[in-house]
Amino acid sequence: MAFVNRSIEQFSVPATIPQCLNYPRTYPQGIAQINYADLYVSAHRLFEAQNYLECAAVAQSLANSSHPVFKSHGYLILGACHFNLRLFDESIRYSSMALRCDPSLTGAYYNLANALKMMNRLEEARDCLRQGLNICPAFVGAHLLYANILVYLGDLQTALEEYKNVTKLCPDLMIAYYNQSVLQLRLKQIPECAHTYGIIADLLKAANETEKALDYYREACKLKKEDWEVVYKYGVALKEAGKV
Questions:
Q1: pTM for this entry
Q2: Is 208 left (phi over 0), alpha (psi -120 to 50) or beta?
Q3: How do the residues of the chain divide into helix, strand and coil, expressed in percent and rounded to 5?
């Protein structure tokens, strides 16, 4: 395994929409003539089935609603559908409309930033994610996307801190530790990188990926020979794998 020349593993998750919510079935001013709650559920199912064209048609009906919640979510879903159809200009337009309707829609910030990134508008994508994370600091996907964008922009130390934030939120998320170790190596934070390698090795061993775990234990020991905990774990893993 070539550890020295590794690159950041890209985080590319399709655009997102919220889980189906249990909206009331009746609304003021005669809105219940169209059952927008059922339309929302239908749009969600179509999106999950990756039927983005039909989903967009249903979402347009939601966006035409006079009910502010369904209107904003309709635009959010339209932005997500157009992103996954790789129509990034349209995705940006609809996600922006969703945020004009409801500036608290964290999913819309994520979708907008994702589309901006695809259009190489990196500074705008970074600033958009900052806004979204201020509203919802626990949005793991947004932290990962934010960190990736910071890497593109050359702000490696801030990106590293973002990956650390992710591991606090999701202690078992491999991609965050992997990218953290890549940046630590680039920034010559060798003891910290050795520690991260040890965590990655522990996760791989727990997932029964023994050979990969041994590679990471071995590299951790090379970087920090005095880390006796890792040395011990490496020895145990070698014994369990029948290599000693």
A1: 0.83
A2: left
A3: 70, 0, 30
Q: pLDDT value at position 34?
A: 64
Residues with Cβ within 8 Å of 155's Cβ and at least 6 positions away in sequence, in order, are none
Tokens of 92: 């940006």
- Tell me the Ramachandran region of residue 67: left when phi exceeds 0, alpha when psi lies from -120 to 50, beta otherwise: beta
- pLDDT beyond 50 at 220: yes
Q: What is the mean pLDDT of residues 124-133?
A: 96
Q: How far is Cα 137 from Cα 114, in angstroms, rounded to an integer?
A: 17
Both structure tokens of 141: 């996907």
d(CA 198, CA 201): 5
The span from the CA of 48 to the CA of 30, in Å, is 30
Tokens 């593109």 belong to which residue?
A: 152
pLDDT above 80 (res 29): no
Give me the pLDDT at residue 10, please.
Answer: 58
Q: 241: pLDDT confidence band, cut at 50, 70 and 90?
A: confident
- For CA atoms 136, 142, 144, 145, the dihedral sign is negative
The gap between the terminal CA atoms of the chain, to the nearest Å, is: 21
Place of tokens 């035409």: 64
Q: CA distances (Å), 191 to each of 12, 161, 195, 220, 238, in order?
A: 29, 16, 6, 9, 23
Closest C-alpha among 20, 139, 68 to residue 113 = 139
CB 78: neighbour CB atoms within 10 A? 29
pLDDT, position 28: 42
